[in-house]
Amino acid sequence: MQLTDATFADQTRTGTVLVEFWAQWCGPCHMLSPVLDEIDRERSDLTVLKINADENTATARDYQVMSLPTMLLFRDGVPIRQIVGARPKSRLLAELDDALSA
After folding, report:
1. What is the pLDDT of residues 63-78, one digit of tens each?
2. Got the DSSP string for 52-98?
3. Distance of CA 61 to the CA centre of its chain
4. Active site positions, annotated
5. Residues forming beta bridges with residue 71, ordered by sequence position
6. Are strands 78-84 and 47-52 parallel, antiparallel or unpaired?
């Protein structure tokens, strides 16, 4: 699901949500996309959403996104982890599990 500046707060307010900030020109973002799609299908405890940082600059600015891809992990509306850069699936899952177990 693609978020916008207008829908961001509502969609990250409840539950555990991983949001990827991406852009069309970002090669690593395109490499990460299938990994995030797999995680979204496999993990019932986590919702994966995406927001185009070029088209939604207010949200990117509010969360101080300076590099793409950047992922923010939210728990009930509160950001609990920021992950910058593409990663292999195993490493990304390890970072998510570490954040969620804290």
Report:
1. 999 999 999 999 999 9
2. ETTT-HHHHHHTT--SSSEEEEEETTEEEEEEES---HHHHHHHHHH
3. 15
4. 26, 29
5. 20, 83
6. unpaired
For the cut 90, the answer to whether the pLDDT of residue 95 exceeds it is yes
Q: Taking Cα atoms as reference points, which of 87, 81, 92 lies closest to residue 39?
A: 92
* pTM for the model: 0.95
Question: pLDDT tier at 1 (50, 70, 90 boundaries)?
Answer: confident
CA quadruple 65, 68, 84, 39: dihedral sign? positive
pLDDT-based confidence at 54, cuts 50/70/90?
Answer: very high
CA distances 78 to 37, 72, 75, 86, Å, are 23, 10, 5, 22
**How many other CB atoms are there within 10 angstroms of residue 100's CB atom?**
15
